[in-house]
Amino acid sequence: MFSFLRPFIFNLDPEKAHNLAIKSLKFNILPENLFTVDNEQILKTNLFGKEIKNPIGLAAGFDKSAEVYNEIFKLGFGFVEVGTVTPKEQYGNEKPRIFRLEKDRALINRLGFNNEGSEIIKKRIENNVPNGLLGINIGPNKGTKNMVNDFVKCAETFFPLGDYLTINISSPNTDGLRDFHKSEFLKELLSKINEIREKSNFKKSFLLKISPDIEETFIDNIIEISLKNNIDGLILTNTSDRNRDNLLDQKKNEYGGLSGQPIKNLSTKLIKKFYKELKDKIPIIGVGGIDSGSSAFEKLSAGASAVQLYTGMIYKGPTVVKEIKKELIDIIRDKGFKNLKEVVGSDLN
C-alpha cells in the first residue's frame, strides 16, 4: 500500500506529509498482528530494566508532542522516544524547514524543537499510559537565558513519567546547544540533573544524545563525565551539519541536520569508538541510516544494545520495522548467534 501511495505522499511538502501521518495514526485502525513476524522471540532484550520485544526504536523527532506513541508501538517498534520537548510551547524555525534528498535517501531538517510545550505534553502522557518502553527527549527553548535551567525544568516535569529521559545536547538547529559537549558545560548540566535524581523517589534512566560531528578528543571526556554522573545510556548519534560533499541531491546545501543513509557509516564508527571504551558499562543506542536488517545488525555488532530510526520510515513506510525484524532474525541465525546479547559488540570481540 505504501509503495502505491508513496508518489502521492512525496508530492506533498515534507512537513505536511508528516502532519498527515500523525493524523492517520490517530485513527488507530491498523491491527498490531499485521506487524509481527515469526520467531520474534530471538529479538527480545532488556533495556533500562525493562524487557522489550525487539531492539528497534523510533527516534525522537517524529512524535514531537507525544500524540501517537501507543499507535506507533502497534507498528512493531520495541520502544518509542517522543520529543524533543521544551519547557514552553515553541513554533520552531521558519518554514520550509524539512527537505527530502531522495537521491541520497536522506533528510535535512532545521525544525528547531517545535512542540506544544512541557505542560500540555505532560498531561497528554498522564492521560494515555504508554503500552511499552517510552523515552522522553528534552531540550531548551530557543533564546532562553539559561539552557541548564530549561533542561532542569523539563527533567523535573517528566521525571515521574515514561521510562527514560534523553538529554538532547546534539541538535545543530539550536544555537549554543552543542557547547554542552565541552567538559565544563557538560559537568554543570549533569550535576544539576543528578540533583533531581537524588531528590526523587522515582527510578528513572537518564540518557545523553551525542552529535556525530564531535571531535575525537571529546570522546574520553564525555565517557568519563557520563560515568561519574551515572548516565544510564548514550544515543549515538543525532543529525549532522556536515558530510555534504558526496551527496547527489540538489537540496544538499540546505542548512540543518542531515539524517539517513549519508550518516550511516559516520554514526557506526562513533559507536565502535565509544563501545571500545565503555564495553558494558553504559548501553548505547545506535541511530543513523537504519532502514534494513543488515543496517540494524551493523549497529548492534558495532556495540549498540538497541537502535532507533526515523528517516528509514519516511522512505520505506510503516512496515519498515517488520522488514527489519525479518531480515535481522535471518542474519542472527545465519551467523550462529543464539540471542541478541551475543550480537552486541561482536565486531570488536
Q: Please describe the biggest sheet, giving its number of strands, its sense, and whether it closes into a barrel.
A: 8 strands, parallel, barrel
Write down the overall mean pLDDT. Answer: 94
Looking at CATH, which topology would you report? TIM Barrel
Kindly name the structural category: alpha/beta
The rounded distance between the terminal residues' Cα atoms is: 42 Å
- Roughly what fraction of the amino acids lie in strands? 15-25%
User: What's the architecture, going by CATH?
Assistant: Alpha-Beta Barrel
Q: How is the largest sheet built, in terms of strand order?
A: 3-4-7-8-9-10-12-13
* Oligomerization: single chain
Instruction: Give unreliable regions as ranges.
Output: none
Number of folding domains? 1
**Morphology:** globular
**CATH class descriptor:** Alpha Beta
Count of separate DSSP helical elements: 12
Please tally the β strands and state the result.
13
Query: What is the chain-wise order of helices and strands?
Result: HHEEEHEEEHEHEHEHEEHEHEHHH
Radius of gyration: 19 Å
Please give the share of residues in helix.
Answer: 25-40%
Please describe what this structure looks like.
The chain is of the alpha/beta class and 349 residues long. It has a single domain, classed as Alpha-Beta Barrel (TIM Barrel), CATH 3.20.20.70. Helix content is 36%, strand content 16%. It has twelve helices and 13 strands. The chain has helices at 2-9, 14-26, 69-73, 118-126, 147-158, 183-199, 218-228, 264-278, 293-302, 311-316, 320-334, 340-343; strands at residues 45-47, 50-52, 56-58, 79-85, 98-101, 106-109, 133-138, 164-168, 205-210, 233-236, 257-260, 284-287, 306-309. The strands form three sheets. It has an eight-stranded parallel β-barrel with strand order 3-4-7-8-9-10-12-13. The chain has a three-stranded antiparallel β-sheet with strand order 5-6-11, with no helix packed on it. The chain has a two-stranded antiparallel ribbon with strand order 1-2. Strand 12, helix 9 and strand 13 form a beta-alpha-beta unit. The chain is globular, with a radius of gyration of 19 Å. The relative contact order is 0.14. The model has no long low-confidence stretch (mean pLDDT 94).
